[in-house]
Amino acid sequence: MERGKKRVVDSQLESVHLVRMNHLNSAGRLFGGQLMQWIDETAAMAAKRHAHRPIITASFNNLQFLRGAYPGDTVVLKAKIVYAGHTSMDVKVETYAETVTGEQFLINCAYATEVAVGEDGKPTIVPELIIETEEEQYEWDRSVLRRELRKKHG
C-alpha cells in the first residue's frame, strides 16, 4: 500500500467553543475535563484529516493548564500534526481563551498521540509528514524526544 506524504498545513484546523454555564467547575472557571474533551476531539479531527482513517487516542503528553477560561469567553483550539510515524501521529493543540474584547490568552498546550485504525480495528499506516519550516522541524524533533522519554520511562 502506498504511504503517501502530506504537509503540516494540510491537516491544520481550529475549533471554537463558547464557555457556557454548564461547562464550569465549582470555582466558576471552565472545567478541566470539558477542555480535555475539546482537546481530544480537536486532535482526533486533525489526525483524521492527515490519515483519512478512523482515529483512536493513545496518549496525552504535556497537558498543562496555564490559565482559566470564564463564562462568555470563546475557546479557540488550534491543532496541527507535528510528527507522523508508521501508524501514529503526534498532534499539538494550543488552546486560547478569547475575551469579549477580542484579547486572546494561551490557556493550554497539549500533545496527543493518535493512532489510525483500519476496518479491522487494528493500526494502519499513515502518510509521511513533509517538514517545510524550521518550526516544523523543531516540533518534529521535540516529538521524537518525547517518544524516546516515554519508551525509556514507560
From TrEMBL:
Q: Which residues form the HotDog ACOT-type domain?
A: 9-120
Species lineage: Bacteria, Bacillati, Bacillota, Clostridia, Lachnospirales
What CDD domains does UniProt report for this protein, alphabetically?
BFIT_BACH
A Pfam family the protein falls into: 4HBT
Spell out the family assignment given in the record's similarity comment. Answer: Belongs to the acyl coenzyme A hydrolase family.
Q: Which residues form the signal peptide?
A: none
User: Which domain of life does this protein belong to?
Assistant: Bacteria
Protein name as catalogued: Acyl-CoA thioesterase
Sorted keywords for this record are: Hydrolase
Protein species of origin: Dorea ammoniilytica
